[in-house]
Amino acid sequence: MSKFVVIGVIIGSIILGILFWKLVPPLLKNNKGPSQAAPVTLNIWGLWESTDGFKAAFDNYQQLHPNVKINYTFQSTANYRTRVQTQIANGQGPDILLIHDSWVSMFVKSNTLAVAPPSIVSFDDYSKIFYPVAVDSLTSNKQIYAIPQEFDGLGLYYNEDLLKNQGIVPPTSWFDFVNDATKMTTADSTGHIQTAGAALGTTSNVDHWSDILGLLFLQQPSADLTKPNNDAGAQALQFYTSFATDPKHKTWDVNMPSSTQAFAEGRLAFYFGPSWEAQVLRASNPQLHFKVAPVPQLPGNPTVNWASFWAWGVASNSPNQTEAWKFLNYLTSGDGEKAVYQEASKTRLFGEPYSRVDLQSELANDPLVGAFVNQAPKASFWYLASDTYDAGINEEMIKYYEDAVNSVVGGGSPQDALGTAASGVSQVLDKYSGSAPAVSGQ
């Protein structure tokens, strides 16, 4: 072998050695397996569900991602919305937070919600996975601000025994609803209602009255909740209050207990409420026979239902935004939602109704929760959602409409009442959102 060949081999070995030590260690360093990923702690603020309710879902995720630690904190509803916004604005607070679907405009205006990366949650996939109302309320300009944890809204609860005694089936139209409710209403010699056909018309003792009124406005052609003072809006308001003011069709008055209590006592035939009220009613009266049907509609018009639900968002100041969105992508997957639902069903009637379109069929035939998921494809929302405790857009908007209802019940005209409300509605929209939302169904 010539010395030139020997020298070449030696030089080649030296070069290969240099390349090995320069290139291989960095490659190994950047090719960590799942168990070598940097540790991440996700702090989550939630409402309604305890840590136990999420345990199965959290455990499943952490088995796949052992580097992720999840800290869930159950929060009080007291000042929750303002507290979490303030914390995020001050560089503190959680990585992941639960928000109501009607709150997005408030959080976007204060720059306290992060946008989901399209590589993790694409808008096209989101639009197919979740119902149209989730797109309407939780996204803007194809940017995703939150992922729905559930779907909820209004269902028509009915007392099976009262309806059976009168040979009545749950009405699908408002015309039948009025006739049936009137038929089932009984009063004493003084005119005080003893058994009510339906709980509508007032604000002081009708739970979820603002949701019901919102639904009526959304269903009424040409009615506009952002500018309510037109003939169509007056008709919607007049219809709602007529259940307490029209002598021919009166089914409710201020002397009755709350609508939830009256229904639990068996003194109310038709009751409007969200899915979680079924748990309250069953606990209040285990012997009560009731089911839930879809809300009535106006014949000849598009179907419009009411939506009011909770969703998960990521704080804009979170240092773990990518991992947070990956986790939420799992939590709202089919496996994630089923795990949470099944865990909740161990201790109550059912879990939170699924937010995913592909899971609708699994609950569609349930006598209690089925009505809610079956209404989801045609549901709309607006800023009259009850029980959000937001000290913001919902509660302030509700106050203006409350004044309008009370004015009509007191003898005022719907047109005048809505004329007064209109300026307040405009002020609330300017304060918290700057513009009206797009709502499906209008």
Describe it.
By secondary structure, the protein is α/β, with parallel strands linked by helices. It is 44% helix and 13% strand. It is built from 18 helices and 14 strands. A five-stranded mixed beta sheet has the order 2-1-3-13-6, covered by helices on one side. A five-stranded mixed beta sheet has the order 8-9-10-7-11. A two-stranded antiparallel sheet has the order 4-5. Helix 9 (209-219) crosses helix 10 and helix 17 (393-409) runs antiparallel to helix 18 (414-432). It is globular. The chain starts with a helix and ends in a 10-residue tail after the last helix. Residues 1-35 have low confidence and may be disordered.
Mean pLDDT: 91
Strand arrangement in the largest pleated sheet:
2-1-3-13-6
Q: What is the makeup of the main sheet? A: 5 strands, mixed
β-strand amount: 5-15%
Distance between the amino and carboxyl termini: 90 Å
Number of strands: 14
Q: Give unreliable regions as ranges.
A: 1-35
Into which percent range does the helicity of residues fall?
40-55%
Which class do the helix and strand fractions yield? Answer: alpha/beta
- Global geometry: globular
Radius of gyration: 27 Å
* Number of alpha- plus pi-helical segments: 18
Task: Please sum up the structure shown.
With 442 residues, the protein is an alpha/beta fold.
Write the SSE topology.
Elements: H1 3-29, E1 40-46, H2 51-64, E2 68-74, H3 80-89, E3 96-100, H4 104-109, H5 123-129, H6 132-138, E4 139-140, E5 143-144, E6 147-148, E7 155-159, H7 160-166, H8 174-183, E8 186-187, E9 193-198, H9 209-219, H10 231-245, H11 259-264, E10 268-273, H12 277-284, E11 290-293, E12 305-306, E13 310-314, H13 321-331, H14 334-344, H15 360-363, H16 370-375, E14 379-380, H17 393-409, H18 414-432
Parallel strand pairs: 1-2, 1-3, 9-10, 12-14
Antiparallel strand pairs: 3-13, 4-5, 6-13, 7-10, 7-11, 8-9
